[in-house]
Structure formats: structure tokens, C-alpha cells
Specification:
mainly alpha, two-stranded antiparallel ribbon
Length: 410
């Protein structure tokens, strides 16, 4: 199916999934928003997304997807561990949210055809989100660059943290650059997305997003080098510019990465390593080791875990870790086996970005932007739907005279 045959409600449902994964925790906004109101909006967005997806797919036609199958299996340890009374009602609520999220993806998978339809939906929605960040910066620079976050950019209209903004900016920058190299967009349209997103990314001082963008683009463009002259030119010029920048702006780049932190704080990943060590050293029952402690807020001892693999281990156990590793490896393996193409390059970028970000960000085991990124990758790697054959024209029947229909033998 082509982009023109995809119902508009599919793009609306995708945008609502993005809204659902924005979260409710972050910086203080210009107009204080109660967390209960934000959660009502995000959960309402998920319910409406599921309703719209069901409305356009009443016959429940889905595309086979190893990614969605493994993601559905992840519900098993999530539900079992969250059903423990000690996990609390919040864990079961998060399970219901994850189940509705996965069900919506299954309904939308009908339109996964290996094209860039969902890439465009992804870029449009996150560009709108970044537009709200830029508007907040213009309205109140003090609220958008608070001292609480060390002067890093946050969402002043909607509570977004610097890592979130950096992630969204990096993803749409990478995808837009690839669309430009694949001649699926023009330079003017690409500049409108890339230039302001680069500025916002720089203001967030997000190291993970920056490294993920650079490495992901290098791998994606590298997959196109043998078949695309534009990719070869872009790769060459990027390497030259990076070499010059490393020599001329080396000290400035180093200062940007350090963000004023001490060397000890930098090497401990801003204190993350201490939380990780405590989580791994904690005593666990056999059930907790295999199935986890139930879906939570991705924290341990009141501190954020900030690592997808350890968060999954804590909440869904080793079973969850195996399933998450399986769908990441499957997506990566399928991408490597595909012939060079723009869709393959975009998928490689998204998979590699999520793999890199998983080291310092949580989200691979629950409804999150990272699962949406990987869903876009799965849509890019899906085999094109077979063309529906046109119905054969009706051949008019010859009219036989009544006298000829009678038998000559009486």
C-alpha cells in the first residue's frame, strides 16, 4: 500500500501514541499543570488511538511481525509479576496501558508495507512537540533554561526533560537527513526540520542523543554508500567537517560534553553507576529474578535507573531481558539481510539509536518513545503487501436463439 492509500486516521492514531509516551514528569511549566491532568490527557490519547485504529481496521487485519509477537510475549512476565499484591495497583494499571499500546500497534500494522509512511508521521508529530519546546523558550527563557537542570533546555509548556527533547530532536534530524539523501524530500523542507532541531539538541546538552545521532547516521549512511552517490558525498563532507571541528573546536566540544561536571561525576555517568550497582547487589527471590518485581516508574530506591536493560531486569526479570534482547536482535538481523534501500537505512538508524540510548535511558520494556521508534523500524522492514489483482471484466454471454436451444431429437 502506498502513502496515498493509508487512511488519515492512521496518522492521527500514531500522533496520539506519541502524545501518550510523552510522560507526565519533568520541569516546572510556565502554567502549572497538575500531574493528574497530564496523565488524564496521555491516557485518554492512548484510548482514542486504540479506538481510531479499531475504527479503520474493523476486520482486524494485521501484518505478521516478529517484533510485535515478542512484544506481546513481554506482557506475560509483566502481568504475572504485577499481579503480586506487593506490586500495588499502579503496576497492574501500567500493564493495562502496555497491553492497549501493543494492541494499537497490532491494528496499525496492517499499513506496515516497507514504505516511509510512518517515518513521515513520526517526524511530523515530534516536530510539533519540539515546536512547543521552542515556543516555551521564546515565551519564557528562564523557565525553559532553569538552574535546576544546570541551564539545560526543558519543556516550559509541557513538562519535558532535556533527555526527552534531545531524543526527539536527534531522531527527526537523522530521519530527515536520510529522506533528503533518498530524495524523498527537498532541501528547503529538510532545513526547516533539521536546523531548529539541531539548535534545540545543542541547548539540551544531551550526550546520549548526540552520540546516538552520530553513530546511527554513520551506520545508516554507510549502508547506502555503495548504492547512492548522494550518500557518498554526504559521508565524505561529514567526515571532513568533523575532522576540522575536532581540531578547531575541540575544547568547546569537550566543555559541552562535560556540562561543567567533574571528571569523577562524568565517569560515573552522573551517578547512574551507583544506582546500577545497588540494583544488581539487591537480594531477589527466584520469582523476582525470572519475572521481576512488576511494572513501576523505572526507579530503584527512589532514584531513576536510567538503563533499559536494568529497568527490564528489575521489573520483568531475566525473562523480560531475553525477550527485549530478542526483538532488538531480530530487527537488527532483518535489517542487515535486506538489500540496500532508504527504508533499510532508516531502520538501521532507529535500531542503532535505540540500542545506544538503552545504556543510559529506560524504556524498552514499557510503552515509550523507544518502542515507537522500533515500531517504525519494523514497518520499514515489513515486506510490501502483495498487489490485489484487478477483477477480470465480465465477458458478455452470447445470446442463443430459442429455436437453437431446442433439441433436434424429439
Amino acid at each position: 500500500m502506498g502513502t496515498d492509500r493509508t487512511p488519515k486516521l492512521v496518522g492521527t492514531a500514531w500522533g496520539l501514541l506519541v502524545l501518550n509516551t510523552l510522560g507526565s514528569a519533568g520541569a516546572k511549566t510556565i502554567v502549572p499543570l497538575p500531574r493528574s491532568l497530564i496523565q488524564m490527557v496521555t491516557m485518554g490519547a492512548l484510548a482514542v488511538a486504540f479506538t481510531l485504529a479499531l475504527a479503520v481496521n474493523l476486520r482486524l487485519r494485521v501484518r505478521p511481525s516478529a517484533y510485535l509477537f515478542l512484544l506481546t510475549l513481554l506482557l506475560v512476565p509483566s502481568v504475572i509479576s504485577s499481579a503480586d499484591p506487593e506490586s500495588g495497583f499502579g503496576a497492574l494499571f501500567r500493564c493495562a496501558r502496555l497491553a492497549l499500546f501493543v494492541a494499537t500497534l497490532w491494528l496499525l500494522s496492517r499499513w506496515w508495507d516497507g514504505g516511509t509512511t510512518f517515518v513521515r508521521h513520526h517526524i511530523r508529530m515530534y516536530f510539533v512537540v519540539l515546536g512547543s519546546v521552542a515556543a516555551g523558550l521564546a515565551i519564557s527563557p528562564g523557565a525553559a533554561l532553569p538552574d535546576l537542570y544546570g541551564g539545560r533546555l526543558v519543556g516550559a509548556l509541557w513538562p519535558l526533560t532535556p533527555p526527552q527533547i534531545g531524543q526527539y530532536a536527534a531522531v527527526i534530524i537523522g530521519l530527515t537527513v536520510l529522506l533528503l539523501l533518498g530524495r524523498r524530500t527537498d532541501r528547503g523542507s529538510a532545513a526547516v526540520v533539521v536546523v531548529p532541531s539541531l539548535v534545540l539538541l545543542a541547548l539540551t546538552h544531551t550526550r546520549t542523543a548526540t552520540v546516538g545521532l552520530l553513530v546511527g547516521l554513520a551506520l545508516a549512511i554507510g549502508s547506502l554508500v555503495l548504492t547512492s552517490a548522494a550518500a557518498r558525498r554526504f559521508f565524505t563532507w561529514t567526515v571532513l567537517c568533523a575532522a576540522v571541528a575536532a581540531v578547531v573546536l575541540g575544547s568547546a566540544v569537550q566543555a559541552w560534553f562535560l556540562r561543567g561536571q567533574s571528571q569523577e561525576n562524568f565517569t560515573s555517568l552522573t551517578g547512574r553507576a551507583k544506582v546500577w550497582d545497588a540494583l544488581l547487589a539487591a537480594d531477589r527471590t527466584t520469582s523476582e529474578y525470572l519475572l521481576g518485581a512488576g511494572l513501576g516508574d523505572k526507579s530503584f530506591g527512589g532514584l531513576p535507573i536510567d538503563n533499559s536493560w536494568l529497568a527490564v531486569y528489575h521489573e520483568q526479570g531475566m525473562t523480560g531481558v531475553v525477550l527485549v534482547a530478542a526483538f532488538v536482535v531480530v530487527l537488527g538481523g532483518v535489517a542487515l539481510l535486506r538489500p540496500p534501500s532508504l527504508s533499510r537505512a532508516c531502520a538501521i538508524f532507529l535500531i542503532s539509536y535505540c540500542a545506544i540510548a538503552s545504556y543510559t535511558e529506560a524504556g524498552l520494556g514499557d510503552a515509550s518513545p523507544y518502542l515507537l521508534h522500533l515500531a517504525v523500524a519494523a514497518s520499514l522492514l515489513a515486506a510490501p503487501a502483495p498487489a490485489t489483482p484487478l477483477p477480470a471484466p465480465d465477458v458478455p454471454r452470447r445470446r442463443v436463439p430459442r429455436w437453437a436451444q431446442r433439441s433436434e431429437v424429439s
